[in-house]
Amino acid sequence: MAAAPEALLRACDGYLTEASDDDAVLGMAPRWVASPGTTAQVSAVMAAATADGLAVVPRGTGSKLGWGNPPRRLDVVLDTTRLDTLVEHAAGDLILVTGAGRRLTALQDDVAGSGQRLGIDPTRSGTIGGTVATGTSGPMRLRHGAVRDLVIGMTLVRADGVVAKSGGKVVKNVAGYDLAKLLTGSFGTLGVITEVAFRLHPVPPARRWVTLAVDGPEQAQAAVQELAHSQQAPVAVEVDWAEGRGEVSALLEGHADATEDCAETVARGLGDGARVDDHAPDWWGTDLGAADLHADGAGRTLVRTTHEIAGTGPLLGSITSLSEAPGVSAAYRGSPAVGVGCALLVGEVDAVVAATEGLRAAAAAVGGAAVVLEAPDDVRARVDVWGPATALDLMRSVKARFDPEGTLAPGRFVGGI
Ligand SMILES: Cc1cc2nc3c(=O)[nH]c(=O)nc-3n(C[C@H](O)[C@H](O)[C@H](O)COP(=O)(O)OP(=O)(O)OC[C@H]3O[C@@H](n4cnc5c(N)ncnc54)[C@H](O)[C@@H]3O)c2cc1C
């Protein structure tokens, strides 16, 4: 192994390996992979890294490491997967405390036996730390809120190794500066999350999906408006869209009879052609996916878009227009009732770059934004993945306060933070 600093080796009790090509973050190769097993070891790793001027990128399963910018420099990947202990499940209080390296799927299994769940269902499963650090959530965000609304406490390690705790295990907690919310969505640039406390929800006895095929953006908009304002209060409203048409689907949950009645009422509200199923459409909650970025020699680019609810139709209309241009196809899947979704652009690089800019303008026109999550290098080189940011000065000052040396994931976040 390239001579690792003694303090770094000691810090993670020998769990330090030489990095391989697989450990690169967007083409930036680290020298070592450190796998601390406790918050104290994470603290020691960060203190040693800061003392030696080493740059660190935290990693869970690595499923979203391709999101954001490449780090400006990288010496150590801090692998969190040994922080996978379920610390506490207080079923009576609907509270769970877990190590950040535990997988979301394992955590859902942990609590399922008590008839409970964590109201996050991201389209790809990673660790809890990665889910929180990227702020990703799936269809249930409509009912349960975004990830930051489910996090009630957090233990984190600052770049200099100082351990900080925020919030706690009680749902109501007035702790002043809300570190847990700040770290949610920070892409590993502000601290290493080591433990998270979540509020849980009971699993309802019955689920029904009401689905309508829609032919054009106006019909999609009307269906989404109907569902978003429905007195039956769907748990989730999702849309799947390609080539100018798609499906809008809503999830109803509750006691069996009531859920059946609610679903029938929702179906009547949506009009002819709406169907009630006891299973989700096959596309529900799954990722459009851009893993194979160069499939067929084409540029595949995954863009996360936000929009006002009333902007659903116009955004879908714009996506349809984009895919009518030569050399590119565009599909969309997301949660229009909370204004968050993903578009997948596939085609020649020039056409994909133009479509990405077009999508960004279309999202801005409906009160939202577009962030490129995954793209091949030749697309990435020609677009600003984050796009224009508001409050950049504030973000820079937060970063400067948390990590003045730029040790943690330098350059990964918006504005090169
Ligand atoms: C350096 C730094 C400073 C921060 N300062 C603050 C602060 O002062 N106040 C505060 O409340 N939070 C702050 N945060 C936390 C971060 O902004 C939270 O992730 C954000 O508040 C939650 O984003 P969201 O509501 O869009 O959540 P979600 O909708 O869940 O967003 C998920 C992720 O996408 C990112 N994202 C989406 N669109 C854009 C975009 N156009 N530009 C940039 N990022 C985008 C979000 O930051 C987040 O990472 C800071 C984070 C960092 C890294």
TrEMBL record:
PROSITE patterns: FAD_PCMH (PS51387). Residues 25-203 form the FAD-binding PCMH-type domain. The lineage of its organism: Bacteria, Bacillati, Actinomycetota, Actinomycetes, Micrococcales. It holds the Pfam family FAD_binding_4. This is FAD-binding oxidoreductase. It comes from the Bacteria. Keywords: FAD, Flavoprotein, Oxidoreductase. The keyword DNA-binding does not apply. Its cofactor is FAD. The keyword Flavoprotein applies.
